[in-house]
Design a protein that fits this description.
- The chain is α+β, with helices and mostly antiparallel strands and 192 residues long.
- The chain folds into 2 domains: 56 residues, no CATH class; 129 residues, Beta Polymerase, domain 2 (2-Layer Sandwich), CATH 3.30.460.
- Helices cover 45% and strands 21% of the residues.
- It has a 6-stranded mixed β-sheet.
- β4 and β5 form a beta hairpin.
- The N and C termini lie far apart (40 Å).
- The mean pLDDT is 94.
Length: 192
């Protein structure tokens, strides 16, 4: 097994068992494996393949139900934020989420403050932060905790606020030809 494959496999375990995001999991895997900090990292596709393999081996009995619960909760938030053209992204969209995964919803707003105002109007407690967007740019994220009755615990929901014009570029297929995010109709179709 080459070092990239070993890093990907170790990172995948951390993603599934600890709910880590891919970047931090890859960096921690390098440390855990005792590799040089400059060791080339695997790409996210390689980590995702390992995540799928890990889930198939160790979580095949629980993961489908957990994923469905997360998708249903995502749909609730997408419906609440429907005015802002919500699109589900990340592990919940791609089907690799477990109960430890957060929900990532991208909003495409005419006015970037309007989504924040909508949360305030509905008395939703959230924390604003800046994250890296899908084109490498700084994007505001409104992070909140939402109870998930099906899982019996709170789930992190991150609403990334993009400009309305970013929607065109957001729908381009990824390196594997997959749609990197889905709108309300697409998420409803996944659950049907």
């Amino acid at each position: 097994m080459d070092s990239k494959q070993e890093i990907a496999a170790t990172a995948a375990r951390m993603v599934v068992e600890e709910g880590l995001e891919y970047g931090p999991a890859k960096r921690r895997a390098v440390k855990q494996l005792g590799l040089n900090a400059r060791t080339p990292l695997p790409d996210n596709e390689m980590v995702e393949d390992e995540v799928r393999e890990y889930i198939a081996l160790f979580c095949a009995d629980t993961q489908p139900g957990e994923l469905a619960a997360l998708r249903r909760l995502a749909l609730v938030w997408m419906e609440r934020m429907a005015a802002f053209r919500p699109h589900l992204a990340g592990a919940v969209w791609h089907g690799t989420a477990t109960r430890l995964s957060d929900i990532h919803i991208q909003l495409f707003c005419d006015d970037p403050k309007s989504a924040e105002i909508a949360l305030i109007d509905h008395n939703v407690a959230y924390e604003p932060r800046t994250v890296t967007g899908f084109q490498g740019e700084a994007v505001e994220a409104l992070s909140l905790s939402s109870p998930c009755r099906e899982l019996g615990e709170a789930v992190g929901v991150h609403l990334m606020v993009y400009d309305h014009d970013d929607l065109r570029g957001a729908l381009k297929p990824d390196a594997r030809g997959r749609t990197p995010r889905g709108d309300l109709a697409a998420v409803r179709a996944l659950l049907a």
